[in-house]
Write a structure and sequence with these properties.
With 454 residues, this protein is α/β, with parallel strands linked by helices. Helix 2 packs parallel to helix 3, helix 3 crosses helix 5 and helix 5 runs parallel beside helix 6. Helices cover 38% and strands 14% of the residues. The chain has 15 helices and 16 strands. It has two domains: 338 residues, Luciferase-like domain (TIM Barrel); 76 residues, no CATH class.
Length: 454
């Protein structure tokens, strides 16, 4: 029996401020003007994408007291932008990253329930944690949390938020726990949540939203993050863009669902990926090389090297050789708690690997960082990229992709005009929206509301 053909879920990540963005390119526009957000959102909607995704930073990234060169334009508030986009789009989902470490469940639940109403059921929440001390300085509570504490707070935060979403008894039918009868009880319901993180109770003041709850995304890659996603998320924003790594991650996370009473279709895995298109394969690869050099400036290269070396390397020439000194072990003093630091479990071994690679290929610091850090996931002609995307989904490396263009706001235009029609011809991407909500687009069932207390 042949395996059913899977539909490819596609989403657009507004590039904003990250190591993908090339703000210095002559074709780049504003990263904060509303017109840029509108352009990308409308491009995604005409290409029948599932949703637009916004990342969030609660503080500009800095190291040794200096702001990253990619962060100088600032970061607008996620809810403000998504609410405004709800008015200029009709079907496109609106997903935003909102932090569970430095926010409170009542505020976040109220904002997302409101966004779901404003958009007629198109809201999604990417639940993330914060690890770094300098972000904490922006908040009254301050400090930073150890990994196990961050995920415990995130679990309880999401549990509390779901209780808030479900506490309003709308027109849906609710089951009476004692009698088994079905009751209609419109109106606000009381919520109570008490645990080691939160001690809250009261009445939620936003009616149950069109989706019941917003779609829940999770973006952590640690074992704790994967377990959190398997237990509570509707979708994962994964960083595994290659087929081999994608299939391993896909299998691992999907295999965890059964112990939470969930089927494999109840969680979508959507890697964030980049792309470069060209008239020929050679043209595309030449463009990709130029883009990587734009993405990794000399300053960025030194900052990324510092995160492994745990030393101030500002005196080093990015076009020169690697430092002769070894990484400093122990408490991280340069970029405390950053995700990129945590990935280097053995800094001395990683440094040795990088030195060997630099020596073998005669690479400078900047050239090495370009070599070892992220690169474009899909490179080639539109036909080749369409083929690669489809093969990845059909072989269970992903359920779809969140595309991160390197230019704002027109970086998605060429993909929408050339690759999407080829996917539609293959019958693996919609030509029209069939539903109205983001849950419809993702093929997710409506969440079951919490039964009304007797």
């Amino acid at each position: 029996m042949s395996k059913p053909v899977k539909q490819i879920h596609l989403a657009a990540h507004f590039p904003g401020v990250n190591n993908t963005t090339v703000w210095s390119d002559p074709q780049a526009g504003s990263q904060i003007d509303f017109s840029s957000f509108v352009h990308l959102a409308r491009t995604a909607e005409r290409a029948k994408f599932d949703f637009l995704f916004l990342a969030e930073g609660l503080r500009l990234r800095e190291q040794n007291g200096e702001i990253y060169d990619l962060d100088v334009v600032g970061r607008p508030d996620t809810f403000t932008v998504l609410a405004a986009l709800a008015a200029v789009t009709e079907r496109l989902g609106l997903a935003g990253t909102v932090n569970s470490t430095f926010n409170e469940p009542y505020e976040v639940a109220r904002q997302f329930a409101s966004l779901d109403h404003l958009s007629d059921g198109r809201a999604a929440w990417n639940v993330v944690t914060s690890w770094d001390e300098f972000t904490g300085e922006n908040f009254r509570r301050g400090g930073f949390l150890a990994q196990e504490d961050r995920y415990e707070r995130a679990r309880q935060f999401l549990s509390a938020a779901r209780g808030l979403f479900d506490s309003w008894r709308g027109d849906e039918i609710l089951a009476d726990r004692e009698s088994g009868a079905f009751l209609r009880e419109p109106g606000p319901g009381r919520f109570d949540h008490h645990d080691g993180q939160f001690d809250i109770s009261g009445h939620f003041n936003v009616p149950r939203s069109p989706q019941g709850r917003p779609v829940i995304f999770q973006a952590g890659d640690s074992d704790a993050g994967r377990e959190f996603a398997a237990s509570a998320a509707d979708a994962i924003f994964s960083r595994h863009g290659t087929p081999e790594a994608g299939r391993a991650f896909y299998t691992d996370v999907k295999d965890r669902l059964a112990r939470y009473g969930r089927t494999r279709d109840e969680l979508k895995i959507l890697p964030g990926v980049t792309f470069v298109l060209g008239d020929t394969e050679a043209d595309a690869h030449e463009k990709a090389h130029l883009i990587r050099r734009q993405q990794v400036s000399g300053q960025t290269a030194i900052r990324l090297l510092e995160q492994l070396w745990n030393r101030d390397l500002s005196a080093y020439d990015p076009d020169g050789p690697l430092p002769e000194v070894d990484p400093l072990l122990g408490e991280h003093t340069v970029a405390r708690g950053r995700a990129s630091v945590r990935h280097h479990r053995d800094p001395l071994a990683t440094a040795a690997e990088w030195r060997a690679l630099a020596e073998a290929k005669k690479l400078s610091i900047r050239e090495l960082i370009i070599e070892v850090t992220g690169r474009q996931s899909f490179i080639g002609t539109p036909a080749r990229v369409a083929e690669q995307l489809n093969e990845s989904v059909q072989t269970d490396a992903a359920d779809g992709f969140i595309l991160v263009p390197h230019l704002t706001p027109g970086g998605l235009d060429e993909f929408a005009d050339t690759v999407v029609p080829l996917l539609q011809e293959r019958g693996v991407h919609r030509t029209e929206y069939e539903g109205t909500t983001l849950r419809d687009h993702l093929g997710l069932a409506a969440p079951r509301p919490v039964p009304s207390p007797s």
